[in-house]
Amino acid sequence: MPYRTLPVLAALVFSTAGAAPVFDNPLVTQRADPHVTLQADGYYYLTATAPEYDRIEVRRARDLNGIGKGESKVVWRKHASGEMAASIWAPEMHRIDGKWYIYFTAGRSDAPMDIRLYVLENDAANPLEGTWRERGQLKTGWEMFALDATTFALDGRRYLLWTQRPPKSDKHMTAVYIAEMDTPLSIKGPATLLTTPEHPWEKVKFDVNEAPAVLVKNGRVFVTYSASATDANYALGMVTADARANLLDAKSWTKSPKPVFASSKATGQYGPGHNSFTTTPDGKTDILVYHARGYEHIPGDSLHDPNRHTRAQAIAWRADGTPDFGEPVADKKAPAVARQ
C-alpha cells in the first residue's frame, strides 16, 4: 500500500487559550457536505449540498453560529439537460489570487451518477455579488467517476485533492488522490494515490474513500476523508504527512488504522463525515465542520434521505501534535426535518 500505519496516539492535551467554543448545533438543517471558510473580510462562508441536488448556494455570517440565518443566495442552478444537469454535490468555495472559485460535482441528464468535477469562477470581492462563470470540467487525467474536489496551498505550491474511481478499476470503489495545480482550473503532472478502502470500517456496503479535507498544523498535513456508505456507517479516516515532505510521494503519508470520527449512540449523532476545517476569528481554536443525522436507521437509499445537517465543534490537540476530534456532540436544539 502507498502508506504506512500510524502508531497509537498519545494522551490528550487541551488548549490553554481559553474555553473552547460551543456551537448551537445543527448550524444549518438539511445541508450536507459542508465547506466553511473564514475570510479576511471577517465573514464565514458556507457552501454545502442541498437535498434536491439541483443548485449551489452561498451563505455568509460574521458568527459561525449565525451562518444558518445569515445572508444566503443561490449562485448557480443545474442545467436543464446535458452536462451539469444532475447530482449537484459537494460545492467548495475558495479564494485564490483575488478570485472566487467553486469546485463541485455534477452528472449528466442521461447519466446522473456518471459524475465529474467542474469549476465556477467569480471576480467580485463579495461572492454573493458579481457573475459566476462556468469554467468547465476540471480534468484529472482519466475519465471516470470523480467527485469531492478540495484545494490548499503550502510553501508556494497549490494542490488539488479529490475522489475518483481508479483507472482500470474492476469494481465500484473510490479512492483519494492528490496532484499539484498549475492554475486554479487545472493540475499538472500525474495524480498520486493517497488512500484506498482497506479496513473493514471503510467497506461497509460500499468500498469508499472520499471527501478529502486538509488541516495544516504543527508541522504536519492532516487529510481527513470519509469512508463507507452515507448512512450511520459513514466515518472519518485520516492520512498524515510531514509538511516538509514531498506531498506527491505516496510514501510520505501515513494512515490511521481506525476511524478518527464516527457515529455516537451516546450523543445521538450518526454518520458524521464529509467535513471541512476552519478556526475561530482569533485563529486560536480549530473547528471541525461536518454533517450528521440525528437518527440511525434510514429506510431505502440513504442518499435520498435529506436530513444530513451541518454541525461544528472545537478540535482538541494531543501531546504529539495530532488532532483529537472526540465524538460528534449532541444537538443543542431539535433540528427541523422539512425541506428548505
What do you see in this structure?
The structure is a single chain. The protein is mainly β. It has a single domain (4-324), classed as Glycosyl hydrolase domain, family 43 (Tachylectin-2, Chain A). 0% of the residues lie in helices and 49% in strands. It is built from no helices and 23 strands. Strands 1, 11, 12, 13, 14, 15, 16, 17 and 18 form a nine-stranded mixed sheet that branches. Strands 3-4-5-6 form a four-stranded antiparallel sheet, with no helix packed on it. It has a four-stranded antiparallel sheet with strand order 7-8-9-10, with no helix packed on it. Strand 4 (44-49) and strand 5 (55-61) form a beta hairpin. It is globular and about 45 Å long. The protein starts with a strand and ends in a 16-residue tail after the last strand. Mean pLDDT is 93; it is low at 1-17 and 336-340. Residues 321-340 are annotated as: Disordered. InterPro entries: Alpha-L-arabinofuranosidase, Glyco_hydro_43, Glyco_hydro_beta-prop_sf. Residues 1-19 form the signal peptide. It comes from Pseudoduganella lutea. This is Alpha-N-arabinofuranosidase.
